[in-house]
Amino acid sequence: MHKRKIAVLGLAMLWCGSALAQQQQMQPLTFWYGYAVKPGKEEAFMDLVKQIGAPVRDKLLAEGAILAWGIEAPLLRAGAEGDGITHLIWYAVPDWAAIEKVNRAMAAQIASVTAEMAKPPAKGARPSMSLIEKQQDALDMPKGRDWVTRDLVFGDGPAPPAGTLPFTRYNFSKVRPGKGADYRAAWEKYNKPVFDRLLRDGVVLAYGLAAEEVKTDGNWTHFVWYGVKGMDGFDKIRAAFQADRAARSAEEREAIAALFGSLTDADAARGYATRSLIFKVQGQ
Question: Under 8 Å CB-to-CB from 16, ≥6 apart: which residues?
């Protein structure tokens, strides 16, 4: 992923699970929170998630407002190419109205937790840190940022068993101005069939072609993401694409390479890989 462009990252998950299969034509949105967790503070960060965000997202997942949510951390310690983001929290929803519902619920939860923590401690007990103090202790606050992305193309299989913690790859591309529709058409023609086969074979849990819904970063325009149960899935995906291209004539391979080369800036391509710390979807 290119510098300062992660979450869209997270390009996180975006990995939305089988509930999104029913929403494909709606082109679901994913909201990403990028956090810079201080060294040695992941447990404190996860405690904050359990206290604040998780109860809200779990409730809205059960009600159907949220389609899926999770937390991811990069497999490579470089993070988002030096921007300091170390963890992504994401949730997938059908539309902007659902994002508003999540924001209102989160604000209410924060207010409730803050009020509870502000109560005087019991006699003889040591005062606990306030919510903002806990956040400042665990996070490098100025480095945080948010993204909203939309799946243009999406595919998934049955909801994986509860407790599944996928690995996800993100491949970022910078499509040349005015070529977005051509790029999507080429991607659906040459790459989507390979992912669909891998989906049917159970190698890929879900995949998508996505773009930022609100443009915040000029370093990339589109990204492909795909989730697998184990990292051996990445090997199988690579082999599947190699086999697909090898089965074509030399002329066709050259034409495909030339097509994508004309549509994208090859020097701007970036990759990102994550491991899930929390992963929940409707239907589990």
Answer: 28, 30, 67, 68, 92, 151, 154, 156, 206, 208, 281
Tell me, what amino acid is at 218? G
Q: Scanning the structure block, which residue is given the tokens 């940022």? A: 145
Q: Token pair of 81, please?
A: 């190419």
Q: What is the largest CA-CA distance in the chain?
A: 80
Assigned CATH for 18-120+128-281: 3.30.70.100
Closest to 20 measured CA to CA, from 86, 75, 83, 93: 93
> Consecutive 10-residue runs of the chain (284 residues): their mean pLDDT?
39 43 68 95 96 97 96 78 82 96 97 88 76 94 93 90 94 96 98 97 95 88 96 98 98 98 95 95 85
Whole-angstrom Cα distance, residue 238 to residue 232? 10
Provide the residue ranges of all domains of the chain, joining segments of one domain with +: 18-120+128-281
